[in-house]
Amino acid sequence: MRNSLADVVAAGLRVLDAQGLENCSMRRVAAELGVQPSALYHHVPNKQSLLALMADEIVLGVGPRVTAAGAAAGDPRRLCVDLREAMLAVRDGADVVATATAFRLGRSRVEDSLAQLVGFDGARTLLLFTFGHAQSTQTHRQAAALGALVDIADPAVAADAGPAAPGEPEGVDVTRPVAPISDPAADLDASFGRGLDIILAGLAAAARPARTALPVR
């Protein structure tokens, strides 16, 4: 049976989730479908177009909430939270969506929704922050899964901490205990929320009309 465009996009997402963006090639997507790579070009002209369709699929459920009365409830903060969660649900999802948006591929439906709420510049600022934070989060999670994160409170790490700080006496023991820091993974969601609040507060302040100073008598 001949594959549809939806089949090709679904296969691309499976390859992405299994092997990451770096290894998500047209050849591997074709192999996932059991066809020759040339068969994919009946549906998409190139890999970039396929990635754009994959990005659209990743963010498919992201959009304004609809109230009981049928009206769209505009909440830019909720949109950004939903967008980040959708990207984090797929391996390298943030890279795919950010790349598609940067090259103006796909429909940019989320950006259009944000622009209606906070203007074009506000939407771009929120998107760039959301993309960057999601990409950083995915990198951290992948590093943690590979055991590549270093605990700076580990005595073995402290022993390689280098020379003592300026002003410390010669012969100071550089293997002294290092104060542990909180696990960054525990604060990633909270830091994203704080960043959104800062940006939205700035946008709200910029939208308020400037007060005219009263003359001093």
From TrEMBL:
Query: Which stretches are labeled DNA-binding?
Result: 25-44
Top-rank taxon, per record:
Bacteria
Cite a single GO BP annotation: response to antibiotic
Question: Which GO molecular-function terms appear in the entry?
Answer: DNA binding
Q: Which Pfam families match?
A: TetR_N
Listed A to Z, the keywords are: DNA-binding
Q: Ranges for the HTH tetR-type domain?
A: 2-62
Q: What is this protein called?
A: TetR family transcriptional regulator
Specify the species: Leucobacter luti
